[in-house]
Amino acid sequence: MQENSLRKMQDADFLYKKIVAMSSSFFIDDTIGEVERFREEANLLLNGIRGTDAVIGIFDHLNYTPVLEVGEKEFWGELPEVPQAERMIQIMSLLEKEYLTFFTDSVKWFTGVLEDIPFEHRMNIQIFHCGIRYKLLDGKPICLFSKGSPIHYDENRKFNYTFNYVQNINHLLKKNFREYWIRISHGENSEYVHTFHSQDKLYSNKDLLSVREKEILKLIADDLDTKEIAEKLYISINTVGNHRGNMIDKLGVRDSTALVQMAKMAGMI
């Protein structure tokens, strides 16, 4: 299940590159010109990774609404038909009660972050959200991980549309983890990072994981055990264990395997 989560993310990244290439011929004055043709061609591409645990689409940030969704009925269930402008309100109605302020809080923060990014750093922007919980009409719990990547920039390197990949990661997170976190990376090598974690309510220009934690996590991903990692980094076994536990707690994942998967999905390693 966890390997499948990462594979779908890799497939989505591959399709994103195709969508970006395709979108250049459809945008006119920073809006989608031939919407229906764009929708048809994007649907053909996105159908390749549709499934019951993921929904893929294109989101309009000016009007705060999806202009294209693939796999939405399998993912969200049979919801009543509503006008496109009301789609996000419908999805927000499924939020569990402790997350009701997520959208307003995250949009406010996200807007501020984008405004503060200098022109020369406005490239390779990626937006990750993790841990938002919903309950579908049939009672099924959904815990979201999403990745958004701009598909079109204007002359000031501002964007109106993102390619969005959203997946149910209920199987990767601890049931009692009721927090959420956001990560934005950008720059020529995605070297600049902005984060928010609901546990401490802190907005930061530092990553969710420290340099040392990432170093240890990469070795975990390379299948080294705790003793081997301790010897390689000249630290104690207890120190390795403490770092591992801190990373698991911070990201809210179930175990070390889920930790590696989540870090890769969110671009941290």
Automatic annotation (TrEMBL):
GO terms for molecular function: DNA binding. InterPro entries: Sig_transdc_resp-reg_C-effctor, Tscrpt_reg_LuxR_C, WH-like_DNA-bd_sf. Residues 202-267 form the HTH luxR-type domain. SUPFAM superfamilies: C-terminal effector domain of the bipartite response regulators. One of its GO terms (biological process) is regulation of DNA-templated transcription. Gene3D superfamilies: Winged helix-like DNA-binding domain superfamily/Winged helix DNA-binding domain. This is Helix-turn-helix transcriptional regulator. It comes from Flavobacterium luteum.
